[in-house]
């Protein structure tokens, strides 16, 4: 059932985003060569701080250990009010702590291993990527991707071409992400392998307007802005149009995706009263990010981050450019031709090649990336000393004026290069699915034991049950007619002709979230054959011809019609079988 | 476009197999703990033979190297007819070669590295699984799964429960498989990461009949039996019912899946004239397998294995039982109660525990798995020597008659345990997709330059194009009406209002396999608004109201109606715009 629910949620995601917005879709590999993840910064920085039990070697995520240890102290009656205030303050700042901050807290409060009570190591960085090797030689290092986004960035040039070299455009990817969590927990919430849906929307950094923004401008979202969080104010309802106009949300494109995110989450069954968009605080956000809003959903585990909507500026593309010296830029036609002054390093490659062999290429790359200020310095050095010492990492390359000059000239340009900004909505589908299941959970009034799920028909694994009122053989040909009708409309269904009481069978189908039920009774034998259709949530029933059932259910399952439309059209059927 | 095609193929697979057959679906992780793959035999045996260039270390798959080297010799005019015959014979037997056979061939014909001409190493086994570690300690070994099947086997007990403990039932999984191929090649045909769809159908080994077999019995397949292959006869058309009756195909369940496989492949666009089912030869098949038929599709790379349909007997479940001592069996109610004689080893666990500590559990496991013959030997040893030396791997455990007895008694049983047989259809979706694209390729008669794809509407990424006859603004509101109509039926579509000549735009949409095109012309302005609908394959057009387009296209895209039905219902529209 879970697989079918997930498949339906993914299919709707594809329709809602990729098809409706005309996005490009890619399907990259999970195995990712190391250079890609070095460029993106993941090899160096995609890590959690971990502490170890000094005797047993048990590992704990440092921030989780501190949080749990503090919560234990706060719950302890012996803890003084002063200490509680102090600990509350640590908790509030924990998100921004580095290893030294955490070590200081662990030392100060003498936190130990929660399992053995043993002393703990200092926090060490633990990279969350799963390493492996590709190919038979063993010397081609790779990782399982921690996110799908990098596959889009490294394909940027081809994607831009597919879009006739025009900005803005968006590319999307649905696939597995892998993170070697130190302590996986909470069911589908923190797992080591999970399905992500990511969009990278590339846009001119000087114009982040969105052509379809006016369509969603009046859409109301619950926003929990950084200001509200700092001032201790609650989240507030905003029209997304007003939020962008008043600068609460950075720009139209980001706002557009937040509104579309809200629509998607509601479509698949998230309760809007348990959904908010929380802005990242300044210290939470990466230094390059412009703005970031997480869609958080309230579950029994608290508010869970399920979707990130971030404006990452030009960070990602620039990282890959730095690593490969392949420009990842778009061109914008200037309103008028323009004369510009060019200053650039002009290395003499054949001399450089003889002198520095394999390093020549690297020297050329670094020279081509020098800023105007650095070039002025190079020019001065070459003029005064006939030599410029170029430093790359820990190496120094002495470049003489035979090898290098600084050229200045002016040229007429008709286009300008722009480094696109990236707006990145990133969905953790497993987390959304978990929230949908919690929000769908119901108990029948007056009977707590009768639990059921109200899943939106759009994502329900099975759209309809088929229940003959008894297991009398006369129903068999009618069951077959109903099955054929449902199959014609690709409606997933489940026949239960077990002979159990009909009320018990209804309860069973309600439990697994089947939104509609077809009942075949003795009246069904008369021609034209009719059946009753039951709406699980309200337990109301209507009666209609078998030949009408497929179209109606197809419409109900895709939202083209609502149950109230069906009730208005077909006669009500009264039965006390649900009692 | 490829992502959408693949998503549609997977969605159809889910409908055709999982929904229509009422299968259980699971979604297991790609990361698989080592013990699972040790039990399945993959850690020990999932390897290819590899030879290395002795100087450069370049690696080659031994069988590929031999095949390519022989083909080069065969193409060489200087090769004598005798040698050619000899080499042809080697090629024919190559599939069954082990490392020694291959080494003999490489030595005899002095095959060298195809890149450098250097000598080659002897063949060494190279395991095709990608290794990694799970968790922070680094001592929990894991692999990326080489197939999805193992996830189903290790969940067998729960799946059986979900099926009310009844046989037969089938479980399916769609997901990534990973194989560290020595030399990936041929586009989507041999890749290191690929999407698989696998079914494990569990069935009573003494009754492999299938309740729905009669529905497919008259279905005609092209079968290339082992006999035909050995005798040099061509493949032959068979009704699958006859093939099972005459023992060509081992049993009904296997035959049923072959017929359903055939139906699926045709639905997604495989040309039936380029599809055959080839039976594995005795030396190709694993020793435990009962029968195996690969669906092979003819492409420009030759006949490519795209689907395996294998009867694997009880091998897989038994392997996991051996490794874990958890019985993976089903129960069958006996026609009548039965008295049986039981002989079993009765270890005295508290003595064993004191004597052998951690090994006691392992000893118990091995004792419980002894055969009646082995138990007779144990009984004899205990009676004569008061001691039985139990060997496990390289260890010997001396068990005294204080620790162990052999018990005999009789009991009445009402059910019997059965070890289910497994019928396994396994689809490589990337390979099928590649074949579909090749088979969909067409050129317009009389104009080789005008290439197009005839994809079945069911799987076509975009169902319909929307083309105003010119970029006149009067068409804009009508385009919007058409878009709304198409969106209501979830029909993927692409608007091209670029103002290029209509014929050129048709050609463009034909190239990417859009099966239908809506054209908006000046007649469309009159109310009720009408448009023309063009069938890309035949280039014929009909005219209909916009309000009818959604339903019709939805029916055409799911196969509820054919183009000929639409032609019969709506007036033909004549235009020479395709010229």
TrEMBL record, chains A, B:
Cellular location(s): Cytoplasm
One Pfam family it belongs to: tRNA-synt_2b
Gene3D superfamilies assigned to the protein according to its UniProt record, in alphabetical order: 3.30.40.230, 3.30.720.200, Anticodon-binding domain, Bira Bifunctional Protein, Domain 2
Keywords: Aminoacyl-tRNA synthetase, ATP-binding, Cytoplasm, Ligase, Nucleotide-binding, Protein biosynthesis, Transferase
UniProt key word Kinase: no
Location of the Aminoacyl-transfer RNA synthetases class-II family profile domain: 83-456
GO biological process, one term: mitochondrial glycyl-tRNA aminoacylation
Entry-linked InterPro entries: aa-tRNA-synt_IIb (IPR002314), aa-tRNA-synth_II (IPR006195), aa-tRNA-synth_II/BPL/LPL (IPR045864), Anticodon-bd (IPR004154), Anticodon-bd_dom_sf (IPR036621), Gly-tRNA_synthase/POLG2 (IPR027031), GlyRS-like_core (IPR033731), tRNA-synt_gly (IPR002315)
Organism domain of life: Eukaryota
GO MF terms held by the record: ATP binding; glycine-tRNA ligase activity; transferase activity
EC number(s) per entry: 6.1.1.14
Keyword Transferase: yes
GO CC terms in record: mitochondrion
Family named by the database record: Belongs to the class-II aminoacyl-tRNA synthetase family.
PANTHER family on file: GLYCINE--TRNA LIGASE (PTHR10745:SF0), GLYCYL-TRNA SYNTHETASE/DNA POLYMERASE SUBUNIT GAMMA-2 (PTHR10745)
Oligomeric form and interacting partners: Homodimer.
The protein, known as: glycine--tRNA ligase
Species annotation: Diploscapter pachys
Phylogenetic lineage: Eukaryota, Metazoa, Ecdysozoa, Nematoda, Chromadorea
């Amino acid at each position: 059932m879970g697989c079918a629910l997930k498949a339906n949620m993914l299919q709707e995601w594809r329709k809602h985003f990729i098809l409706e917005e005309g996005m490009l879709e890619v399907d990259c590999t999970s195995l990712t060569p190391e250079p890609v993840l070095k460029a993106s910064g993941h090899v160096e920085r995609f890590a959690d701080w971990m502490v170890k039990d000094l005797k047993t070697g048990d590992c704990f995520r440092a921030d989780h250990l501190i949080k749990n240890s503090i919560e234990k102290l706060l719950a302890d009656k012996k803890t003084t009010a002063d200490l509680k205030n102090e600990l509350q303050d640590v908790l509030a700042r924990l998100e921004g702590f580095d290893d030294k901050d955490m070590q200081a807290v662990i030392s100060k409060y003498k936190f130990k291993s929660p399992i053995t009570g043993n002393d703990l190591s200092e926090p060490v960085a633990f990279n969350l990527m799963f390493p492996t090797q590709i190919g038979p030689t063993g010397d081609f290092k790779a990782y399982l991707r921690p996110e799908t986004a990098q596959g889009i960035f490294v394909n940027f040039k081809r994607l831009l071409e597919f879009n006739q070299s025009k900005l803005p455009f968006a590319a999307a990817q649905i696939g597995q992400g892998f993170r070697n969590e130190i302590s996986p927990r909470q069911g589908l919430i923190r797992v080591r392998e999970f399905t992500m849906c990511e969009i990278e929307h590339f846009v001119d950094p000087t114009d982040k307007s969105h052509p379809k923004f006016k369509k969603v401008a009046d859409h109301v979202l619950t926003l929990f802005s950084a200001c509200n969080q700092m001032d201790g104010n609650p989240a507030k309802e905003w029209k997304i149009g007003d939020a962008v106009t008043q600068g609460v949300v950075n720009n139209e494109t980001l706002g557009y995706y937040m509104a579309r995110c809200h629509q998607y989450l509601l479509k698949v069954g998230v309760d809007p009263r348990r959904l908010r968009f929380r802005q990242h605080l300044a210290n939470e956000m990466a230094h390059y990010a412009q703005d970031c809003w997480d869609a958080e959903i309230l579950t029994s585990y608290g508010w869970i981050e399920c979707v990130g909507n971030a404006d990452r500026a030009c960070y990602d593309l620039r990282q890959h450019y730095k690593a490969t010296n392949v420009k990842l830029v778009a061109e914008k036609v200037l309103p008028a031709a323009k004369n510009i002054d060019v200053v650039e390093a002009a290395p003499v490659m054949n001399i450089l090649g003889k002198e520095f062999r394999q390093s020549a290429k690297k020297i050329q790359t670094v020279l081509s990336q020098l800023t105007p200020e650095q070039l002025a310095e190079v020019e001065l050095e070459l003029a005064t000393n006939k030599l410029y010492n170029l430093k790359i990492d820990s190496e120094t390359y002495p470049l003489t004026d035979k090898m290098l000059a600084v050229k200045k000239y002016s040229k007429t340009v008709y286009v300008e290069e722009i480094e696109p900004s990236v707006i990145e909505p990133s969905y953790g589908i497993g987390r959304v699915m978990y929230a949908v299941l919690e929000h769908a959970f119901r108990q029948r009034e007056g009977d707590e034991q009768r639990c059921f799920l109200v899943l939106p028909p759009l994502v329900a694994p099975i759209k309809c049950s088929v229940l003959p009122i008894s297991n009398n053989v006369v129903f068999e040909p009618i069951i077959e007619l109903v099955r054929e009708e449902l199959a014609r409309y690709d409606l997933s269904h489940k026949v239960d002709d077990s002979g159990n009481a009909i009320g018990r069978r209804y309860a069973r189908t309600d439990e697994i979230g089947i939104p509609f039920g077809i009942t075949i009774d003795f009246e069904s034998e008369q021609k034209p054959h009719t059946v009753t259709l039951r709406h699980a949530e309200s337990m109301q029933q209507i009666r209609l011809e078998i030949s009408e059932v497929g179209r109606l259910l197809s419409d109900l399952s895709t939202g083209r019609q609502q149950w109230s439309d069906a009730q208005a059209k077909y006669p009500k059927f009264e039965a006390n079988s649900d009692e």
